[in-house]
Design goal:
Helices cover 57% and strands 8% of the residues. With 460 residues, it is an alpha/beta fold. Bound molecules: guanosine-5'-triphosphate (GTP) and magnesium ion (MG).
Length: 460
């Protein structure tokens, strides 16, 4: 299933892995390859274009998580976009519990309608213990009834007996009466296919649909026809109210164009896929699983998801290391202010400092400053990079410039500088002493002066 596409993706990702770090040029060339691969898979052009645009947008805005290579990150983004175009969450196949559920199956000739009726009958019977009735509305070929009858015998369900020369519309009313008398739960209507979408087929279907009033009108499509399947779906949707499609012959489909284009172009969800000729060769259509089959990289996707979860923790650990070495500059203070809530404040970081972890939950809440986080951010952002890394060089004239740049006053700048000095001094002291004899109230008092008001709020 989808081997060609899968192989192409494998090559593309192999290439990306080799480049180590990914710059714009290598990303561009990978995207060109992905676009070509999608088009070769018979994916509609607007989808291929949109796919590439979305992946690029995601990739550019994304901060690469430590412990993840850029290639792995791109894999995850491509995976997510694949799921997106496959239809993310596919709606369930509807089943009524308190009244008869009717299902109408339509599609072109040879698309797999009759086989699919057998499969769905089997699915409803074995998973939901439903009493099933098969109804053949295909009066065009004498063998059509016999084919459905064989399937009904195979899975041991009832088939509406044949009456010679009855019109499909009259078969429907007979089926309804039969279903009521026999207390049937689910009625599955198989219809005749035509070589092409044409007027006669459509008007017949539309009449049948009105008469049956189905819970689901399922369009059966041959996935091997790629883009054509999508066009067929569009044409059928003009005449009948399709609630979902079933793609057949996925087992032989190396390309996958129909599966990838269907939801985007027709907005018609794929509910199942046929993966063989036997009655149990039917699978629910799960976009995540399909994406995984196409990319074959489920392990990388999980890895990236896990890494994203731990990234906050890594940030906290890194900050703790800097604090211990006394390398805490104003850039760190800035990122700390920004991440304060996420990290659980100072106490969150203290958890990673040996000897201090036991104190982290004893620090009382502190609210002794009215400096807003936004203002503190503005001040630090008005400093040059050099000033942020070497706060000692910030003299009077620099302070004036920073105050003007941030719309604050020199005394606000002093406050922040004092706050930074105190923090780094104290952290140095703490790590020397190991924290064992520190009074948490004293610690909070020290840290507190000049801290943003919600600096300590989060965790304790
Ligand atoms: N490999 C494979 N073959 C399938 C699948 N679904 C159907 N087929 C085969 O496709 C052929 C046509 O299937 P039918 O169910 O008769 O198709 P139909 O739409 O009812 O055809 P008409 O009634 O003539 O319009 C049969 O040989 C089936 O065994 C599938 O998912 N995989
Ligand atoms: Mg048939």
């Amino acid at each position: 299933m989808f081997e060609n596409l899968s192989n192409r993706f494998e090559e593309i990702f192999k290439g990306l892995k080799k480049t180590g770090s990914i710059d714009e040029a290598s990303l561009d060339s990978a995207m060109r390859d992905i676009r070509r691969a999608l088009l070769e898979a018979d994916v509609a052009l607007p989808i291929a274009k949109r796919f590439i645009e979305d992946v690029k947008k995601e990739a550019i805005g994304k901060e690469i998580i430590r412990s993840i290579t850029p290639a792995q990150m791109i894999t995850k983004i491509v995976n997510d976009q694949l799921i997106q175009i496959l239809g993310s969450a596919s709606p369930e196949f509807q089943i009524n519990d308190n009244q008869v559920s009717s299902y109408l199956f339509a599609g072109l000739q040879g698309s797999g309608k009759t086989t699919t009726v057998g499969k769905i009958g089997n699915y409803l019977k074995s998973n939901y213990d439903k009493k099933i009735l098969f109804v053949s509305l295909d009066t065009t070929r004498p063998a059509a009834f016999d084919q459905l009858k064989k399937l009904s015998e195979l899975i041991d369900v009832t088939i509406l007996p044949k009456l010679e020369n009855q019109m499909p519309i009259d078969i429907v009313s007979r089926a309804k009466q039969f279903a009521e008398l026999q207390e049937i739960d689910c009625v599955l209507y198989d219809t005749a296919g035509r070589m092409n979408v044409e007027e006669g087929l459509m008007s017949e279907l539309s009449l049948l649909e009105k008469e049956i009033n189905p819970l689901e009108t399922i369009l059966v499509l041959d996935s091997l026809t790629g883009q054509e399947a999508v066009n067929v779906a569009r044409d059928f949707a003009k005449a009948i109210n399709i609630t979902g499609s079933i793609l057949t012959r996925i087992d032989g489909d190396a390309r996958g164009g129909a599966a990838l284009s269907m939801k985007y172009i027709t907005d018609c969800p794929i509910k199942f896929m046929g993966v063989g000729e036997q009655v149990d060769d039917l699978e629910k259509f799960h976009p995540e699983r399909i994406a995984n089959r196409i990319l074959g990289m489920g392990d990388i996707v999980t890895l990236v998801e896990k890494a994203a979860e731990t990234v906050d923790q890594e940030d906290a650990e890194e900050m703790a290391k800097k604090l211990q070495k006394g390398e805490f500059d104003l850039d760190d203070l800035l990122s700390q202010i920004r991440q304060m809530k996420k990290m659980g404040g100072i106490s969150g970081m203290m958890k990673f400092i040996p000897g201090l972890s036991n104190l982290s939950d004893k620090i009382p809440q502190n609210t002794n400053t009215d400096n807003s986080i936004a203002q503190q951010e503005a001040i630090i952002l008005s400093m040059t990079k050099y000033e942020r890394s070497k706060p000692k060089i910030i003299n009077g004239s620099r302070k004036k410039r920073i105050a003007a740049g941030s719309g604050t006053s020199v005394s606000e700048i002093n406050k922040i500088l004092k706050q930074h000095r105190k923090m780094s001094d104290m952290m140095k002291k703490l790590s020397r002493k190991g924290g064992g004899s520190i009074d948490p109230n004293m610690l909070a008092g020290q840290l507190g002066s000049g801290m943003p008001s919600d600096f300590f709020k989060n965790k304790f």
